């Protein structure tokens, strides 16, 4: 184990983190920050906050589906530095990537006996395509991941010392995580179990610490949930049934994580065997931890990491099986990446110590680090292809050249008649907002997003009402390159709405609407 305060050990970690921050800045500053539908919604809410309009999205509806912290952060930066979120996110993500690499490296430095292994683990995070693809797009995950790392850092200190300062710091980190993504509430359970089962203080003191932790972690998110209930009658906006079964999501979980390390895909019996092996490994680890053998202290250190990985992965699988949102993939699972790398590094460190009793230490180290360097070609090459794809498209999704040069978007930007007096609907309203600077509502939906569940009332009624009652002309902006099958098609809309095409473009059309 190395002294964290020695600059000779901290400096290489700092250099790796600066390299990571520089990489993200170079990419996003050159091509613009990547913009997904969620990105556009966060940015629209941040802009409305700075304009004094409150938590309102680009579609004019209350912001409910996500917690408030990320758009609030973007709004605060805009107020303080007069930097629009499209600009500030470039700096935020670059800084966060570097900081996360540094904090993860410091956790490795504190808990590993091998400094080369510390550097290897830090470099693995730097070269991770899982992270790079999340940090070159405007998402809340980077800040959420930072909160998780801070939680793990100060929980580690708390488990060593049992002090109130560390308790409060990791409690605040969890509170911020819950205000960034709703799934952060699972960290409250993970933290409570860690305090109860791993803290060195007396049982009565543990219970007092759990109460302090839960109060700090829950109260801010509880206030936001109360606001949502008052506005919508729901904790986090209206949700629908998922399109994916439990078995689908278990398979997606394991295959996504496996793909971080190897280019393989498993199913059926292979998946069952893997689950059994992992369960056996966890049970063995728990047994060793509770025996509290002195030479198994490193395994004791992995307990909060493994607990977080299991609980977070579990809630993602369960919620994805009951509630419709994005398919399980790298983005949803990225918060477990650093804890997983830390856990693997601790086990390698322990294995190296044990094997050195039987093998030559230098030979063993050579084999281990040669294997790590050889394996690192896999994530590094995947990162290279992600970066190449990003550069070739001059950005991702709505920041890409394809979308910026879209004929419909170009028409909207050139057509001065559309400046005032129009109420817009679209099958891609986020593109209309971020690229043409026009607020637009969603065109009518048949089912909920990523769900077989039908929308309760015919959503075409809303657009019919607007076309009848609104003083503004009602227009539908339609993009042909969108494959959102949960929305009514043009032909289905024509069944109940009069539509007159006012512009036919290469990749879409614009219609005026009124009730039949």
Summarize this, please?
The protein is an alpha/beta fold.
Note down, in words, how this protein is organized.
Helix 5 runs antiparallel to helix 15, helix 8 packs antiparallel against helix 9 and helix 11 crosses helix 13 (297-322). The chain is built from 22 helices and five strands. The protein is 65% helix and 6% strand. It has helices at residues 7-31, 37-50, 69-81, 85-111, 115-126, 129-135, 141-161, 164-178, 185-198, 203-232, 246-261, 268-291, 297-322, 330-333, 337-355, 361-375, 377-392, 401-404, 407-414, 429-436, 460-469, 490-494; strands at 422-426, 440-442, 473-479, 497-505, 508-515. The longest helix has 30 residues, at 203-232. It is globular and about 80 Å long. A five-stranded mixed beta sheet has the order 2-1-3-5-4. It starts with 6 loop residues before the first helix and ends with a strand. Residues 293-298 have low confidence and may be disordered. The chain is of the alpha/beta class and 516 residues long.
């Amino acid at each position: 184990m190395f002294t964290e305060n020695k600059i000779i050990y901290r400096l290489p970690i700092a250099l790796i983190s600066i390299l990571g921050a520089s990489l993200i800045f170079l990419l996003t500053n050159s091509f613009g920050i990547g913009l997904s539908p969620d990105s556009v919604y966060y940015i629209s809410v941040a802009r409305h906050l700075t304009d004094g309009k409150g938590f309102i999205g680009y579609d004019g509806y209350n912001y409910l589906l996500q917690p408030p912290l990320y758009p609030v952060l973007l709004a605060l930066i805009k107020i303080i530095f007069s930097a629009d979120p499209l600009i500030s996110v470039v700096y935020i993500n670059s800084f966060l990537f570097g900081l996360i690499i540094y904090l993860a490296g410091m956790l490795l430095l504190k808990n590993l006996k091998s400094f080369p292994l510390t550097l290897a683990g830090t470099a693995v995070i730097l070269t991770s395509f899982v992270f790079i693809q999340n940090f070159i797009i405007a998402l809340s995950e980077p800040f959420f991941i930072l909160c998780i790392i801070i939680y793990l850092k100060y929980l580690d200190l708390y488990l060593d010392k049992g002090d109130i300062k560390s308790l409060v710091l990791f409690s605040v980190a969890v509170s911020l995580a819950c205000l960034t993504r709703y799934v952060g509430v699972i960290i409250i359970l993970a933290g409570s179990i860690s305090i109860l089962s791993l803290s060195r203080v007396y049982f009565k003191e543990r219970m007092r610490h759990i109460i302090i932790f839960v109060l700090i972690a829950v109260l801010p998110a509880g206030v936001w949930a109360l606001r949502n209930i008052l506005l919508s009658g729901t904790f986090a906006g209206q949700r629908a049934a998922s399109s994916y079964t439990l078995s689908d999501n278990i398979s997606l979980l394991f295959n996504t994580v496996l793909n971080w390390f190897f280019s393989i895909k498993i199913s059926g019996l292979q998946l069952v065997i893997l689950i059994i092996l992992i369960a056996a490994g966890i049970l063995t680890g728990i047994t060793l931890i509770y025996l509290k053998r002195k030479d198994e202290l490193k395994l004791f250190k992995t307990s909060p990491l493994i607990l977080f990985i299991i609980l977070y992965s579990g809630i993602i699988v369960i919620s994805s099986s009951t509630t419709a949102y994005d398919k399980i993939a790298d983005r949803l699972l990225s918060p477990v990446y650093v804890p997983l790398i830390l856990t693997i590094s601790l086990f390698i460190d322990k294995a190296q110590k044990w094997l050195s009793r039987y093998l030559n230490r230098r030979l063993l180290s050579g084999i281990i680090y040669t294997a790590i360097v050889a394996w690192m070609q896999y994530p590094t090459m995947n990162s290279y292809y992600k970066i190449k794809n990003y550069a070739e498209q001059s950005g991702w999704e709505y920041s890409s050249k394809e979308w910026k040069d879209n004929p419909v978007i170009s028409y909207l930007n050139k057509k001065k008649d559309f400046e005032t007096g129009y109420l817009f609907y679209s099958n891609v309203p986020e593109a209309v907002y971020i690229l043409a600077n026009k607020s637009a509502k969603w065109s009518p939906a048949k089912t909920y997003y990523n769900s077989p569940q039908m929308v309760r009332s015919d959503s075409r009624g809303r657009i019919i009402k607007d076309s009848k009652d609104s003083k503004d002309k009602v227009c539908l902006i339609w993009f042909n390159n969108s494959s959102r099958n949960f929305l009514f098609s043009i032909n289905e809309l024509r069944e109940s709405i009069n539509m007159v095409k006012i512009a036919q473009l290469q990749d879409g059309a614009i219609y005026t609407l009124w009730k039949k």
